[in-house]
Amino acid sequence: MPDMSNHHSLAGRRDGTAVRHLNQRQLAARWGVSVRTLERWRSHRQGAPFLKLGGHVTYRLSDVEAFEEAQRQEVSAA
Predict the structure, then answer these.
(1) Which residues contact 21 (CB under 8 A, 6 or more apart)?
(2) Between residues 39 and 1, which one has the greater pLDDT?
């Protein structure tokens, strides 16, 4: 059984694979920011895409990983 401490599965995809999601607390811990910071980013349309399901904010793990990759900075030799 997979470790569910860092994420949880919600509805699956059409191909039968699970879609993993992080809640605000989990994402805040992953990025080392406060939940309030995530709330502020959402209000300014910044940060990773999110879903609002039944009044709860959740982030698809695939969206979080894509956002992280997009923020990656290359260091060039001077």
Answers:
(1) 7, 8, 9, 10, 51, 58, 59, 60, 61
(2) 39
pLDDT tens digits, 11-55: 556 676 677 999 999 999 999 999 999 999 999 999 999 999 899
pTM of the model: 0.72
The length of the chain in residues reads 78
Pair of tokens at residue 33: 């920011």
- Domain presence at residue 8: no
For residue 48, the enclosing domain spans 19-70
Q: What's 59's domain CATH number?
A: 1.10.10
CA distances from 43 to 2, 39, 54 (A): 33, 6, 18
Query: For 46, phi and psi rounded to 5 degrees?
Result: -115, 170
